[in-house]
Amino acid sequence: MPDCWEIAVRSDCALPDNFVVEHRLDKFIADRQRPHLQVMELDDAGGIVDPRVACQLDLEAGQAQAAFLLTEANASSCVRYFRIQQSHGKPPGKGLIELRQGVMHQEQESYQIRTTNATYLYHVRGAGFASMIDRDGKDWLSYRPFGGSDGKYRGIPNLAHPENHFHPGADGCRSRILNAGPLKISIASESVDGKWACRWDLYPTHARLTVLKVDHAYWFLYEGTPGGALDEQGDYCVTSDGRRRALSERWEHALPDPEWIYFGASNVDRVLFLAHHEADQHIDSYWPMEGNMTVFGFGRNGLTKYMTETPARFTIGFAETKDFAAVQELIRSVTQPVSISAAAP
Q: Which of 67, 77, 280, 309 is deepest in the core (most CB within 10 A)?
């Protein structure tokens, strides 16, 4: 067993504050005398910049992984150095993400996850998000257990049709918490028949879905309420080529690479972004439904579903700005992994 792991973290784009880095700990052996991790940031000469970096240890399927926080300290450097070692003391710092289980939300048991800029409500049996609430208390999903476009059609990611798996309000899935720490919470969900499976990893700044198993073609949907309610004339969407459209405009075409979109509301100085990591040429689409909600889909045209790939990854989150360049940089930072090498400074 190594006494410690020394790594260099590189990124070719600016990373947001409270960005979480993850690193697999090869040859890790659990030590009852040292059940926690200590992470130190080093400078390029090996000197200690921060002796107590906020971190967590995740143990899953026989593998150990360290998750630790990048703060603004030394943020101007494109290469940052860290030492990871086992420790008897608990990691420092207040948690930036918090889990509550057993919360009843819109008539279903839910996980409530609070982060630095969002509160997520995830239906345990539906295996989908019923609410995504911003800092001002506005719900950008607004699922309700009644009606249609005014309630029960809404949610993220609404993957499997017609089975309705991974959709809030449904009851064909089961979910469990894989890891819950101060920096990251992981949820595993699968259909009761075992034909579909996915996981969500939630961080202080965003949430990432990995589609692991499918029974047929699927889509990824955002069916919700930008800024709390759909305003077709004032609300808008923007794609990675900079094209902006009012949410009154219907369209069907493959999004440009990189494949992402964000939705904004006229009364809010933030946006909700959605990104598909694996670029493709499938048709994507948007239309407003009955003046009540967005219907946006990666890999959707009408009721036709195009995506079949597994694993496939999607990332969602709020950006606390409407500026295109700033949102573009944030999406880039949370969808393009940092480079990690086992190298001491």
A: 67
CB–CB of 224/132 below 8 Å?
A: yes
Which residues of the chain are modeled with pLDDT < 50? 1, 73-74, 76
Burial annotation 32-67 (CB, 10 A radius, 16+ → b, else e):
eeeeebbbbbbeeeeeebbeebbbbbbeeeeebbbb
Do 191 and 60 sit in the same domain of this protein? no
Strand order in the sheet with 284-289: 220-222, 293-298, 284-289, 251-253
Structure tokens at 69: 């926080």
- Cα–Cα distance measured from residue 31 to residue 94, given in angstroms and rounded to the nearest whole number: 24
AA identity, residue 46: G
**Residue numbers of the domain that contains 89:** 4-93
Q: How many whole angstroms separate alpha carbon 314 and alpha carbon 292?
A: 25
Which of the 8 DSSP states describes residue 34? S
H helices then E strands: how many in the chain?
1, 27
pTM (two decimals): 0.94
Sign of torsion over alpha carbons 269, 275, 279, 280: negative
294 located within any domain: yes
Q: Which residues contact 147 (CB under 8 A, 6 or more apart)?
A: none
Query: Which candidate, 105, 104, 211, places its Cα nearest to that of 155?
Result: 105
Distance of alpha carbon 72 from the chain centroid: 21
Q: Which of 93, 124, 154 is the last residue of a domain?
A: 93
pLDDT single digits (tens) 74-131: 454 578 899 999 887 777 667 899 999 999 999 999 999 999 999 999 999 999 999 9
